[in-house]
Design goal:
The chain is an alpha+beta fold. It contains three helices and three strands. It comes from Lentibacillus halophilus.
């Protein structure tokens, strides 16, 4: 399969072949299957984020003991790991300077 150029904004969970507004935080080159996998990871981030929002309204459940927070952290790390792996040099450098991945992940 051929790799195509995509623009990614992890904050808005946007993946697009068309550069528009602020969707070009990261640039990746990916196959259709890789984009589908990244989309799945971002959807999982969104679902975990929603569960975290509702958990935040339960005062007896401490933040550090919340599975939905752990799920979100895992999903965002996985998404950034994949963006780093598929990204151009500028994307790889940006993610490296963010410090979201450990040296082992790079």
């Amino acid at each position: 399969m051929d790799r195509k150029k995509y623009y990614v904004n992890a904050g808005s969970k946007e993946i697009s072949q068309v550069r528009f507004d602020n969707n070009d935080v990261f640039t990746i080159f990916a196959t259709d299957d890789e984009v589908n996998t990244l989309r799945h990871k971002m959807n999982n981030m969104d679902a975990s984020d929603t569960r975290t929002f509702f958990r935040a309204h339960v005062p007896i459940k401490p933040y550090h003991d919340d599975e939905s927070n752990d799920d979100y952290d895992h999903e965002i790390t996985e998404a950034y790991r994949m963006i780093h792996a598929l990204g151009d040099d500028e994307t790889k450098q940006h993610i490296t300077t963010m410090g979201i991945l450990s040296d082992r992940d790079l």
